Amino acid sequence: MSLADSTTAVETVFRMEFPRVVAALARLANDLDLAEELAQEALVDALRQWPRDGVPANPGAWLTSVGKRKAIDRFRRDRTLADKYSQLARTLERAGAHGAEPSALDDDVMDDDRLRLIFVACHPLLPLASRVALTLRVVGGLTTAEIARAYVVPEPTIGQRIVRAKRQIARAAVPFEVPVGPERAARLESVLEVVYLIFNEGYSATAGEDWLRPELCAEALRLGRILAAMSPDDAEVHGLVALMEFNASRVRARIGPDGAVVVLADQDRRRWDRLLIGRGEAALRRADELSPTRGPYTLQAAIAACHARSFRPDETDWPEVVALYDLLASATPSPIVELNRAVAVSMATGPATALPLVEQLSELGVLDRYHLLHAVHGDLLDKLGRHAEAAAAFRRAADLAQNAPERHLMLRRAELAGGEADDGDRVG
Predict the structure, then answer these.
(1) How far, in Å, are 142, 152, 199 from residue 213 at the CA level?
(2) pLDDT digit string, tens, across residues 92-115
(3) 263: which residues sit within 8 A by CB, 6+ positions away?
(4) pTM of the model
(5) Nearest 5°: phi and psi at 255?
(6) Cα atoms in the Cβ-side hemisphere of radius 13 Å centred on 361
(7) CA–CA dist 101, 328 (Å, integer)
(8) How does pLDDT run across 38-59, given as a tens digit for each residue?
(9) CB 187 within 8 A of CB 122
(10) Distance CA 60, CA 14 (A)
């Protein structure tokens, strides 16, 4: 293997192990910035040794052990951190890290460290955008440039969010631990919110030229599976995983060969990933076993399951979908939930029943700048033969859509509805 190839291999392994290494070092140093710096220094050692000696059997443990030794060296050089050094040294001695091979470090301990890091990165004291950026960086292992590209945000902006988030965590002295009791429940809600936000940005990007960003869906799903493995008794964790598994199963069918958006009713369901659907069913069953009352994520997963179980659109149990949306609206009242419920009502009982529901939402004004409100309004008007009004609604949706493929879809719908209106005028 050439030097360039071996360097690439080392960097690839490091990228995979980075979150676990940072998590372990952050727990010991109680400093996120320092943990990242130590991990990078361990990479430098790996780039020197691994091409010569080979990649160790447990590269994550090797990197963590090297990072710990470097932490000790650094604390020794800084007398003002003598107490911190003593604490870290005692921790390492208890772990037996001085005399053990790096590969002997406990994988279960490293996984616990990752769970701690997830709770720190998703701390509610941080603004939501900062939680997302920090989670993708230190838990997901994405670079600042990758996060910036995914969210169509300048790289310096993402960098600043991450730096500010670390400073806020340091100033607040957030402990690197998994909270317990009521605090855990409150913090878990924030963690799940961040993971689902990352998934949704990948599933339907808010801006830019790409409607789908599968790498973000995959990263959110990976984080969700980690949470489910480490929190096996939390029903809503499994509910969120089920929801993401079901939705991820449709990713390949949501874009046509020309890059155009393919809506649910027009998707080739043979392209849906049956393996992911099976995993979604298993996660949903687990959530239901753990709690007799479905939470918001589990309810959304049950809705997604209604679609996943139908091989044709007309086989979907729309009355069941409406009933599930009724429960979801009761659990988490939201205009967007009501809009989605209206779509289900239109499929269950017809557009004439759903149109007043959407128009009531329009009158409230809270979703006036939400492009999908106008898209749904246009679709219902179109189905009822009110094509000129439908075209205007689709044009409004296109004006508000910040994502190029969705904007093109709305303009196409406006064009088609306008054409039908012209034909109707001529016939009349």
Answers:
(1) 14, 11, 9
(2) 555 544 444 444 444 444 457 877
(3) 409
(4) 0.77
(5) -130, 130
(6) 25
(7) 52
(8) 888 888 888 888 888 888 888 8
(9) yes
(10) 8
